[in-house]
TrEMBL record:
It is found in: Cell membrane. One of its GO terms (cellular component) is plasma membrane. Its main location: membrane. It is a multi-pass membrane protein. Keywords: Cell membrane, Membrane, Transmembrane, Transmembrane helix. It comes from the Bacteria. This is Polysaccharide biosynthesis C-terminal domain-containing protein. The chain crosses the membrane at residues 12-34, 54-72, 84-105, 120-141, 153-175, 181-201, 222-246, 252-273, 294-318, 330-351, 363-382, 388-408, 420-442, 448-471. InterPro entries: Poly_Biosynth_Transport.
Length: 488
């Protein structure tokens, strides 16, 4: 089992290079966009991203997740390439159709999205066409990841993120094109990198439209679409709700909070990229459930403690991020809750690993749909009363619902001893500690660091008091760490 733990950590560390680079670039660009855009236009940028995100989910239709399965399940290299080609052609082709539709008939959607839409006639068509490039990149880099072409994945992941964002800054700062300029940069950067990748991977395409292969991909991936749409609702629908039911200014603050909270992805995304192919590759091992349990508990502890420690410094970081611009106020007090929601979404992949192995993806969808309905209704009720607090509190609640649902459904088909009772106690202590930290920060209490140390100590003590981990298990992990770079 040790060699597989080493391989998971090794793959996570390798993929982390691109992910951390991209997130750091995005974090550095946030203040640039805030500096050059008014709060209303910054909120409009967020509105556009909400639409392109759901477009990407609908067009891909879960075929990227299906490829993670069929990459290993395909009997021959030719069979694998047919799956790959059909997944890419289907997703990119669907997005091109939506781009044409929004170009011809997108006026009413533009008017509904933006408070001031007269300058945004071509915003959605440009953003949709940029999404075509992003979809091509996502499929090809996914294929590179499954075949463990680490440097190809890292180089081109960073190339398209850094390149398109630098072009966005050029259009924004030099040509003063506002929100349109940001998406001009995305269009040129993403389509350009997509064309390069298509050329480099030309030998991996098998230009055959196969009804059987496409049917396999859609049958596996389509049941995940409700999950993805529910995830979209829980990560994005609060933006237009705050925009229209509170104010564009509140939406701008929330957008800044969301962007800053994504720092937690520096920890979670490398793991998430490595987890799917790793878990599928060891699913037939006898000791796989034991390994999954160990990884799930470790991820929970590392992720929650990372959120807590980030919160100790968040006021200072938030001030830098918003460049001291008037109007963004005390948005830093919301960051931990949004970060936790992002982290919980990664955690459910481990708690529901058996559902993926047993192809019970519909069950995951049901949990996300239930949580999405709770989240949507909660936002509609609470945002007009509590503004941003209404959304962030529902973020935490909705993802807790997902985790509990996925855990119990997973136990029915693929039992794993995650020590859920210990997890529940640990999370209760964590939440009490975080509420206390928020109170200290919101009221600017003196000697806040004393409470921070107390909260961290109590939370870490709970890890051992509840039996989540023992000193012995930590020693085993410690002995493995120096060898993580070895072959898996």
């Amino acid at each position: 089992m040790k060699q597989y733990i080493k391989r998971l950590f090794s793959d996570s560390a390798a993929f982390a290079i691109a992910t951390m680079g991209n997130k750091l670039v995005s974090a550095m660009l946030g203040p640039v966009f805030i500096a050059y855009l008014s709060m209303g236009k910054y909120a409009d940028w967020g509105q556009t991203n909400v639409v392109t995100m759901v477009l990407q989910y609908v067009c891909i239709l879960g075929t990227d997740a299906a490829m993670a399965f069929y990459f290993y399940d395909a009997k021959t290299v030719e069979d694998r390439r047919i799956y790959f080609t059909n997944a890419l052609l289907f997703s990119a082709g669907t997005c091109i159709v939506f781009t044409l539709l929004v170009y011809l008939f997108g006026g009413p959607l533009t008017d509904a999205l933006y408070a001031n839409s007269e300058n945004y006639t071509y915003l959605l068509p440009v953003a949709f066409l940029a999404t075509v490039g992003a979809i091509v990149i996502q499929h090809i880099l996914g294929y590179a990841r499954y075949s463990r072409r680490v440097w190809t994945f890292n180089i081109f992941s960073m190339a398209y993120v850094i390149g398109s964002n630098l072009l966005s800054i050029l259009f924004l700062a030099y040509f003063h094109d506002g929100v349109m300029g940001i998406f001009y940069g995305q269009l040129i950067g993403q389509v350009g990198v997509a064309l390069i990748l298509l050329y480099l991977f030309r030998g991996e395409f098998h230009l055959k439209i196969s009804r059987r292969h496409l049917s396999d991909l859609i049958r596996y991936g389509a049941p995940l679409l409700p999950t993805l749409l529910a995830f979209w609702a829980m990560s994005s629908v609060s933006r237009p709700i705050i925009y229209h039911l509170a104010s564009p200014e509140h939406a701008a603050i929330y957008e800044a909070v969301m962007r800053l909270a994504s720092i937690i992805v520096l920890i979670t995304s490398p793991f998430q990229l490595a987890w799917r192919p790793f878990s599928m590759s060891i699913k037939d091992r006898e000791d796989a459930p034991e390994l999954f349990a160990l990884v799930g508990r470790a991820l929970l502890v590392v992720g929650t403690l990372a959120v807590m420690i980030l919160t100790f410094f968040i006021q200072w970081i938030y001030g830098l991020y918003t460049v001291g611009k008037h109007g963004y106020g005390m948005g830093y007090i919301y960051v931990w809750a949004v970060s936790l929601g992002t982290f919980f979404n990664v955690l459910q992949n481990v708690f529901g690993v058996g559902l993926m192995i047993k192809k019970k993806t519909k069950v995951i969808s049901y949990g996300f749909m239930i949580a999405a309905v709770v989240y949507l209704v909660g936002n509609l009720i609470l945002v007009p009363i509590f503004n941003i607090w209404g959304s962030v509190s529902m973020t935490v609640l909705a993802y807790l619902i997902v985790i509990v649902w996925v855990y119990y459904q997973n136990q029915k088909v693929y039992p794993i001893n995650f020590r859920f009772r210990s997890i529940a106690i640990y999370l209760a202590v964590f939440f009490i500690s975080m509420i206390g930290i928020t109170y200290v920060q919101a009221n600017h209490l003196e000697n806040a660091w004393l409470y921070y140390l107390l909260a961290l100590g109590v939370t870490m003590g709970t890890v051992f008091a509840t039996g989540l981990f023992s000193i012995r298990s930590l020693n085993r992990i410690g002995r493995a760490l120096p060898k993580l770079g070895g072959k898996g």
